[in-house]
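Severity: low
Component: inverse-folding endpoint
Summary: output formatting inconsistent between runs
Steps to reproduce: submit the following structure tokens with default settings.
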């Protein structure tokens, strides 16, 4: 016997869980199928910076209790290079919006609890292997599930993308040829601001996560092995790139996670076919250079929840038909900003014939951001906004 639900959702990340919660609030029968265990998804540390639209969505839909209790408001970022450091208080620039720092695994934990409280069904340890977009049928290791609609929220390596016909959906993709070692440390933040350090050894980044945990990024070779980066090497390279001799020491602590992140971006267009819709990383992967992925996922979940609610409760599918057209311009703006951040943060490889030209160009880009108020307003609007 196949499970049945009005809306089947594949994946219990931010996209699937926000969508599930919004649909349940409208009384729509939903079933989430998730490959990982509950413990696994509730402990997977990834994003932390929620933009203003995400905070609004979570607050307006009754999903913000944890974020409001322990999230930290964040309004400043700093850039360091050989010429010095400058800070941008983006909370006083652009639209005056700020980030809320709330670790993704805490948000996912809250969203699962609230989804179950709203009567939502979720099956963990279920790996979806095939989706039929015409009939909204999903095959998995536990058998088969059927819905009126199916939503793929299974990330960029999931199966839902593959269920879109190759001749109808285009995947616009770019590998930026850059890799980061993403590090979590049991250490309080060293600076009050998100700090981006530009150095000839490569980029280094510092981002708050919670009072006890700080995330750092180090640009590394694409084929580097995280095991080749013991704690001492990480801290000593961070000290060089963060120029601690000029700006003061880092607050060190044990490294609790180190993983490689390749900077890749892609957009699937259209994000829907038949009864299947994609949301979150499944629809568009964005490099973490501008902290946009979870925020895009939440934006799409809200748009799709409204459209599915119209379809189910009023038999009106106009908003569903427009789903890709509604989301893609916002996705591409985020991609454009993220791409701009990548070119700002990373120098050219030494072997590139015009490396010298590119280096000076990057310095000009940074000085424009430091000196031009209109450039700063534009930066702030795009940095926090979707
Ligand atoms: C190091 C790092 C830092 C980041 N920092 C930020 C940040 O500060 N701000 C920000 O906005 N974004 C950030 N991001 C990006 C953000 O984490 C992702 O964009 C976000 O998780 C996307 O949510 P999602 O729900 O689309 O996908 P995911 O969170 O990837 O969830 C997909 C779910 O689908 C499940 N799944 C996959 N395949 C199957 C299958 N076949 N069957 C069943 N289930 C399946 C997976 O187990 C997973 O639980 C960061 C990412 C990384 C890696």
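Observed output (run 2 of 3):
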């Amino acid at each position: 016997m196949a499970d049945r639900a009005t809306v089947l959702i594949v994946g219990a990340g931010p996209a699937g869980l926000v969508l599930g919660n919004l649909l349940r609030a409208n009384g729509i029968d939903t079933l989430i199928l998730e490959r990982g265990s509950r413990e696994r998804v509730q402990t997977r540390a990834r994003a932390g910076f929620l933009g203003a639209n995400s905070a609004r969505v979570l607050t307006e839909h009754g999903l913000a209790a944890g974020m409001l209790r322990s999230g930290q408001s964040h309004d400043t970022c700093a850039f360091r290079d050989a010429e010095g450091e400058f800070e941008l208080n983006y909370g006083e620039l652009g639209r005056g919006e700020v980030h809320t720092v709330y670790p993704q695994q805490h948000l996912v934990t809250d969203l699962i609890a609230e989804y179950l409280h709203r009567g939502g069904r979720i099956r963990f340890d279920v790996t979806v292997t095939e989706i039929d977009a015409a009939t909204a049928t999903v095959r998995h290791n536990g058998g088969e599930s059927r819905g009126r609609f199916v939503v793929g929220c299974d990330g960029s390596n999931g199966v839902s993308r593959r269920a879109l016909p190759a001749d109808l959906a285009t995947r616009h993709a770019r590998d930026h040829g850059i890799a980061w070692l993403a590090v979590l440390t049991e250490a309080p933040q060293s600076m009050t601001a998100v700090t981006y350090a530009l150095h000839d050894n490569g980029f280094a980044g510092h981002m708050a996560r919670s009072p006890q945990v700080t995330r750092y990024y180090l640009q590394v070779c694409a084929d580097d092995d995280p095991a080749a980066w013991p704690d001492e090497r990480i801290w000593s390279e961070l000290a060089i790139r963060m120029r601690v001799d000029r700006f003061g020491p880092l607050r060190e602590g044990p490294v609790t996670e180190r993983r490689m992140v390749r900077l890749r971006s892609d957009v699937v267009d259209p994000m829907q076919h038949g009864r299947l819709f994609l949301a979150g990383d499944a629809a568009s992967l964005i490099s973490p250079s501008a902290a946009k992925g979870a925020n895009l996922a939440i934006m799409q979940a809200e748009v799709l929840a409204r459209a599915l609610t119209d379809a189910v409760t009023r038999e009106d599918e106009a908003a569903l038909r427009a789903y890709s057209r509604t989301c893609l311009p916002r996705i591409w703006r985020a991609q454009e900003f993220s791409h701009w951040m990548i070119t700002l943060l990373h120098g050219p490889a030494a072997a590139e014939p015009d490396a010298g030209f590119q280096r000076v160009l990057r310095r000009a880009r940074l000085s424009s951001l430091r000196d031009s108020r209109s450039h700063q307003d534009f930066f702030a609007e795009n940095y926090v906004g979707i």
